[in-house]
Specification:
The protein has 235 residues and is of the alpha/beta class. The protein is built from 8 helices and 7 strands, in the order ααββαβαβαβαβαβα. A 7-stranded mixed beta sheet has the order 1-7-6-2-5-3-4, with helices on both faces.
Length: 235
């Protein structure tokens, strides 16, 4: 909490002269590295050579722990913005940073607001040339990966940029759900091959979404939660 208050305060100060969020993102990366260091957590990255620094992407990752965001921030040296639960924007310091740095809220119970938010994400990619990060499960998964929602696929196709599957391994162990105790360990971040979306239409988002989930699951070594009828379990 102290680290978050400190780094969010620095981010707010930086926002006085940097409205684009570039400096704030650098501060956020330092925040991520600081949290990992305080928890005695190492982060190993595999596949970064697949990403080009001058290309915008839609980054798509599994979500098993609150340590997922610090792990990606500290590991992926790209300028990116991410979608966060709307409630986080009302949290002091963290919410102030999210808003001032140009991150976007996820509106779950309002379909129209959700579409507007996704369209805004595609606009940020097109106008600013920065990437966006999404956790398409819609929340942390305690044991098995949840079925992906189609927002990431929608944004990638609408913006016409590659979608990149990212698998996070061991974040669930270093900080499990329903626990405040951080455990020392090693997190692995696996970057998959970018999936080109040029030529795709919005009607193709279901197929792209399935492909993204399959690749993220393979990279993370996760299984997808299904019901007895063979359909995905929606939490």
């Amino acid at each position: 909490m102290l680290a978050t208050i400190l780094m969010a305060s620095v981010s707010l100060i930086c926002s006085l002269w940097d409205r684009a969020g570039v400096t704030q993102h650098r501060v956020a990366r330092a925040w991520g590295r600081l949290l990992l260091s305080l928890g005695f957590i190492r982060c190993e990255v595999h596949g970064m050579e697949k990403l080009q620094p001058d290309t915008a992407y839609v980054l798509v990752a599994n979500h098993a722990s609150y340590m997922d965001t610090p792990a990606i921030l500290s590991s992926i040296p790209l300028q990116f913005r991410f979608f966060a639960k709307q409630g986080l924007f009302s949290v002091p310091f963290m919410g102030w940073h999210l808003r001032r740095a140009g991150h976007l809220p996820v509106v779950r119970d309002d379909p129209r607001a959700s579409v507007r938010s996704m369209s805004e994400g595609a606009k940020i990619i097109a106008e600013r040339g920065v990437s966006v990060l999404l956790f398409p499960e819609g929340g942390r998964s305690e044991t098995q990966m949840r079925p992906f929602k189609e927002g990431a696929a929608y944004i990638a196709i609408k913006a016409g940029v590659p979608a990149v599957p990212i698998g996070l391994v061991n974040t669930r162990n270093v900080l499990p759900m329903h626990s405040c105790m951080v455990r020392p360990g090693t997190i692995q971040v696996f970057v998959g091959d970018p999936i080109e979306t040029r030529g795709m239409k919005l009607q193709d988002r279901g197929r792209l979404n399935e492909l993204l989930q399959e690749r993220v699951a393979a990279l993370a070594g996760e299984t997808i939660a299904y019901s007895d009828t063979g359909h995905p379990v929606i939490h």
